[in-house]
Design a protein that fits this description.
The complex is a heterodimer of chains A (about 100) and B (about 210).
Chain A lengths: L1 H25 L2 E7 L4 H12 L4 E7 L4 E6 L7 H10 L3 E8 L1
Antiparallel strand pairs in A: 1-3, 1-4, 2-3
Chain B lengths: L1 H13 L13 E8 L3 E11 L2 E10 L4 E16 L4 E15 L8 E14 L3 E12 L3 E12 L10 E10 L7 E11 L2 E7 L5 E8 L1
Antiparallel strand pairs in B: 1-2, 1-12, 2-3, 3-4, 4-5, 5-6, 6-7, 7-8, 8-9, 9-10, 10-11, 11-12
Classes of the chains: A alpha+beta (about 100), B mainly beta (about 210).
């Protein structure tokens, strides 16, 4: 009985670890370099526009790098065209979009 | 008239004001409370797109003793977004009614209008702005005002931090005898709030607040 338990526990641990790994793969982070991002007010506008999207979980801003970080909800995605449109509509220009897995 | 004036004052005291972005993001509202040596003003606007805003502006001019109620439109004509800076060119116009409380024109009402442009440039350390406005209100008021503002940020705050600017505003009113006014001021902003506090060369305070949502 003890032997069976010793086999099952590592097995369940491995399954659990793999499931978590797959879930993490589905969480995406997108880094967007934005031109014109010079003040907090500019950033607030972009954050508010992006937060309207239901696929977006959280938005963070790095002013030093003029970069917006978009954290997506599990199993959701947003294409580059949509991101560019939202930021352009807010009055700013997208320089580069980089997806982090 | 006096009630409007008191409302302006009360809001000015209890809330506060900004003047950096005459246009917001699509669907964004902005409320501005501005108080300086010449005028108390409340301006609220909605931006259907980032290119223009529509709003209502009410202002009380102390020396001239009149209230200006206007529907105002601000147009972003051109924006230059660079990696480390941004510049904007706006045209701001309004049309409405002026109501005088001055003895000569007591209780006189006139159609009024104003128009002007502004240009600003900023990066995270430096700020420059030029703006002008010509206002016409029949017998009650008729004047051109222009100003330049220079700003310096002693540190570069990140997103969500308290941002601080040291600024100097020079205002020119060609029609007046004593036609230059100098106002050193502090600008603070954090999140969606902006507050300015200054004191001009005649000992009169400036206090502005604005909120965007």
């Amino acid at each position: 009985m003890k032997r069976i338990r010793n086999l099952i526990i590592p097995f369940l641990f491995c399954i659990s670890f793999n499931i978590n790994a797959e879930q993490n793969d589905m969480f995406g982070e997108i880094h967007v370099s934005v031109n014109g991002l010079v003040c907090d007010f500019c950033a607030q506008s972009i954050v508010k526009m992006l937060n309207k999207e239901k696929s977006v979980k959280a938005v963070d801003v790095n002013m030093d790098e003029s970069m917006i970080k978009i954290d997506l909800k599990d199993g959701h995605d947003i294409d580059d065209k949509k991101i560019t449109k939202l930021i352009t509509d807010a009055g700013y220009n997208v320089e580069k979009i980089h997806r982090v897995e | 008239m006096r009630y409007t004036f008191y409302i302006v004052i009360i809001f000015g005291l209890f809330i506060e004001s900004i003047d950096a972005r005459p246009v917001s993001y699509p669907g964004g509202w902005t409320i501005m409370f501005k108080n300086d040596a010449n005028v108390n003003r409340i301006h609220t606007h909605l931006s259907p797109t980032h290119k223009y805003s529509l709003g209502y502006n009410v202002e009380y001019w102390h020396d001239e003793e009149f209230v200006l109620n206007s529907l105002q439109i601000n147009n972003l004509i051109k924006r230059w977004n660079k990696k480390r800076s941004q510049a904007n060119f706006y045209i701001k116009s309004g049309i409405g009614l002026a109501y005088s409380d001055k003895s000569t024109f007591n209780e006189e009402v006139e159609l009024s209008g104003f128009s002007g442009f502004s240009f600003d440039w900023e990066n995270r350390r430096y700020f420059f702005k030029y703006q002008n406005r010509y206002t016409e209100a029949g017998n009650i008021y008729d004047a051109f005002i222009q100003s330049v503002t220079f700003g310096f940020a002693p540190y570069e705050g990140d997103f969500g931090d308290l941002h601080t600017w040291l600024m100097l505003k020079l205002e020119h009113k060609p029609e007046k005898e004593d036609n230059f006014e100098i106002t050193p001021l502090f600008r603070f902003f954090k999140s969606v709030h902006l507050f300015e506090l200054g004191l001009n060369d005649r000992g009169k305070f400036l206090y502005n607040y604005f909120i965007r949502f």
